[in-house]
Amino acid sequence: MKHHHVFTLGAALALSSLAAVLPALAAPTYEDLAARFNTTTCALPCTAPQSGDWYLWRGENRVEVRAGSGEVGEIWRRDGKGRVDFVYVEPAHKRGIEYNASDLRIIGHTRSWDRLASLIPPAELEKLSPAGETEVLGHKAQRYSGKLGQRTLEVVWLPDLQIAARVSVTYPDRQVTTELKGFLGKDDVAATSDDALAAYQLVDFSDLGDMETKPSMAWVKEAVAAPGHEGHTH
Amino acid sequence: MNTRIQFAIKPVAAALVVAFYMNAALAAETETAATWYEAGQAALKEAKGLHPNERRAKNVILFLGDGMGVSTVTASRILDGQLQGKDGEKNSLYMEKLPYVALSKTYSANQQTSDSAPTMTAIVTGVKTNDGELSVDQAVAREERDNAVIQAHKLTTILELGKARGMATGVVTTTRATHATPAALYAHTSERDWEADSNLPAGATVKDIAAQSVDNFAPNDGMDVLMGGGRTYFMPNTQFDPEYPATRGRRKDGRDLIAEWQNKFGCAYVWNKTQFDAIDPANTRCLLGLFEPSHMHYEADRANDAVGEPSVAEMTAKAIDLLSKKAKGKGDDKGFFLMVEGGRIDHAHHAGNAYRALTDTIAMDEAVRVAMEKTDPKDTLIIVTADHSHTFTIAGYPKRGNPILGKVVNPGQTAPVKAADGMPYTTLSYANGPGYHVLPVGGDTVYSQPIKAGRVADMSNVDTEDQGFHQEALVPLSSETHAGEDVAIFANGPKAHLLHGVQEQNYIFHVMKDALGL
């Protein structure tokens, strides 16, 4: 039953990949943020929506997302030179798959940092039209709407946090809506610390091809949410 | 960067395309029955001029293209030529200029199609063993934890034999220095994945591979060169990587093996290109180079490394210079043994990405060129082989000069030929693996790419020569697999003529040992 989690997290991240990379504006700074989101996807006409919660922890150089079940997640890290690496994690089992920049390039699993950190890049936001102001969880918010290609977007943007509180994208065949549900406090579920990650069983993406027949690595075959190495249990 | 590959990692300029087609056309125009016949006669004359070199080898250089099956060599030869605007089919890689060739049977003691651990064990110990095991015999069960069992069944490697005679020794790879192929030369273990102590299961007394690179050698008498990736396997998990500050060492035992290499053996240590370039072999006792936390970059991506990495050819040149100096420094020149691995050919194939598999093969071939230029075939045996093949194939019937990474265009045609399903197909494909998907770099990609085996899309408007293209695969597997057919052995130098016919893979060790008089 991993599909639900994969779907939910996948849909959330797909939102962060809405369009081709645009010319970079002044680089935004991303304050620390921990929040719970919900994503709903529905084929049109919508009769059976699917939804799920997921978490996001954002730092200046680190973005972690985790399915609400806690089963799977992604950790994106960048260094001072702008290089990005990625770890697919299964927190409950304390294991994961590491991808360096070359791995990400070879499987095409690359993301702009702005998309990861704000769900919709500010540069893309500028292509939409302002549609009034509102308030979300005590933060001033700006509504935007517009059409980009075949997609119709409605966005609620939190300027002070540089993140979308709501993104609704209507494609010709489906609608995907992500909403901020709340901020996480110190007693809520926490991000994966560097110390915790160091204790994980981590394998290198490049080595997976040599590991598939090892019984102790059977979990890798089941890691259907791991990019570039999707199992075929579905 | 290797100029042969520079072309490959940039969009091919229109001028280059024009030059390529002009050259291909000119080649076809100048070929006649007479030119083919004369070329055959010239090759015959050259073959008749070959004389077995029965001398004892002073040096042995073993090149190992991981996963470099015959189809990979052929496709790389064509791509190499085409990237230079030459006749790709007629082109020869440097490894193919070595005059003696044999085939190697790559099955292991318990596998019809094998992995890199038993195959490299066969090549460097003369004995075949089981899957996943490094330089121990087949009586050892995989993941055997008892070091006493390992010690009782360990096999002496060609590197260890060379060291025992006082030869200088070196290992160069583009994978982690602790990966199966390099590790088979200096470590003995029942599990190739036990590269750091954190990989060992509870209760294991066998040492991890990185530790064995230190512990298996006496003070001031370690390997003279060890270069590759895998830095974090040598670092305690309390240390952060110098190049990637978010990455920690993988060792839980607190050992700093990099410091131990420096202290125990007196070796210089480098982790970036600037430091590497500054190493003067004349003033360097021995050298540890660990250029990435894990594997080094593919050749196609190497230029993206912020602090720079040497190419496999550059590492080979440095290693030969250092080992030659070291061997001569021991009074009577006792020679050297060097293993060089193009280790990421295999990884690119596993990912179903022929582009990187071929460009990494060409990069290793550049290292072969360097070795040929820096050594004398009178006293140096050079062997180039692979541990196993991949399910990688070259289909029919593209016309002469058709881009090897392109779609099949029949002779006399300009448009791709259509298969029975009405869609074009590429010359290169895999029998299994993740299969076809177009993965635009930096663009929209779905989170979870499903496996797309078989004929899933019309590639009429797809650039199949792009670095991100993944060739089609018939059987859906999450990772493309090794293949079981024989691989080639190319050789020149003393006793190279003994590499002939179809041989068991472990025979290679016996030729090297005999050539060195060990």
Mind explaining what this structure looks like?
- The complex is a heterodimer of chains A (234) and B (518).
- Chain A is of the alpha+beta class.
- Chain A is 17% helix and 39% strand.
- Chain A contains 6 helices and 12 strands.
- In chain A, strands 7-8-9-10-11-1-2-3-4-5-6-12 form a 12-stranded mixed β-sheet.
- In chain A, 43% of the residues are buried.
- The model of chain A is unreliable at 1-26 and 230-234 (pLDDT under 50).
- With 518 residues, chain B is an alpha/beta fold.
- Chain B contains 15 helices and 15 strands.
- A 10-stranded mixed β-sheet of chain B has the order 5-6-4-3-7-1-8-14-2-15, sandwiched between helices. In chain B, strands 10-11-12 form a 3-stranded mixed β-sheet. A two-stranded antiparallel ribbon of chain B has the order 9-13.
- Chain B is globular and about 65 Å long.
- Chains A and B meet through helix 1 and helix 2 of A and helix 13 of B.
Give the key terms.
heterodimer; A: 234 residues; alpha+beta; twelve-stranded mixed β-sheet; 12 strands; 17% helix; 39% strand; globular; disordered N terminus; disordered C terminus; B: 518 residues; alpha/beta; ten-stranded mixed β-sheet; three-stranded mixed β-sheet; 15 helices; 15 strands
The average pLDDT of chain A is 82
Poorly predicted sequence stretches spanning 5 or more consecutive residues of chain B: 7-18, 439-450
Order of secondary-structure elements of chain B: HHHEHEHHHEHHEHEHEHEHHEEEEEEEEH
How much strand content do the residues of chain B show?
5-15%
Biggest sheet overview of chain A: 12 strands, mixed
Total beta strands of chain A: 12
SS-derived structural category of chain A:
alpha+beta
First and last CA, distance of chain A: 9 Å
